[in-house]
TrEMBL record:
Residues 16-76 form the HTH tetR-type domain. Pfam families: TetR_C_33 (PF13305), TetR_N (PF00440). Residues 39-58 bind DNA. The lineage of its organism: Bacteria, Pseudomonadati, Pseudomonadota, Alphaproteobacteria, Sphingomonadales. The keyword DNA-binding applies. Keywords: DNA-binding, Transcription, Transcription regulation. It comes from Sphingomonas oligophenolica. This is TetR/AcrR family transcriptional regulator. It comes from the Bacteria.
Length: 193
């Protein structure tokens, strides 16, 4: 046996998509703790790889947190899109996206906080959305503004501020979590007027 053959372990670990597995593990760990309490070694251990393996995909904790935030934002956008479609689009669909936003925050508090602590989301007013959630908000706000004769940027900002504010108030225990209240507060029929 050659020296190079003896250096190869008899049973080596290989992961098909380690980056995706690390993100999934990080998301799962966020279900039980705040992002500040999440460590790279813990994520590597959850996937079953050595702590050094994580550094091939994420040079530091900040990079991992940014990847988790980006995936969280994609999931938020998917939840909002599904809610809008289920409500049939239009004003009802726009209201459903706001309610989905708040419910996503309540179901994923650590991830939600991480999204907005580490988000690379473009400024809503700059006209250049960089993620699905912002693009979806902007498009729906433009349609709603057209229907009520309002300014699309103002409508988008009002809708986001209402949904985000309600989510934070509920997460922080300032307002009780109440599904009916969520639906009443994010009613798009009153936005833009």
């Amino acid at each position: 046996m050659s020296t190079s053959e003896s250096a190869i372990p008899a049973k080596s670990y290989h992961h098909g998509d380690l980056r995706a597995a690390l993100i999934e593990a990080g998301l799962a760990l966020l279900e039980a703790r705040a992002a500040d309490d999440l460590g790279l070694r813990e994520v590597a251990r959850a996937v079953g790889v050595s702590p050094t393996a994580i550094y091939r995909h994420f040079p530091d904790k900040r990079a991992l947190m940014a990847a988790l935030a980006a995936e969280g934002l994609a999931r938020l956008a998917a939840a909002q899109r599904a809610a809008s479609e289920a409500a049939g689009g239009g004003v009802a669909g726009f209201s459903a996206t706001g309610a989905a936003y708040v419910r996503f925050a309540l179901a994923n508090p650590a991830l939600f906080r991480l999204i907005f602590a580490n988000s690379a989301t473009a400024d809503l007013l700059d006209g250049k959305p960089e993620d699905d959630a912002m693009a979806f908000l902007r498009a729906n706000a433009a349609a709603l503004a057209e229907g009520v004769g309002g300014d699309a940027q103002v409508v988008a900002l009002q809708a986001w501020a209402i949904a985000h504010g309600l989510a934070m108030l509920m997460l922080d225990g300032q307002v009780p979590v109440d599904d009916a209240l969520i639906d009443r507060v994010v009613d798009a029929g009153v936005i833009g007027k």
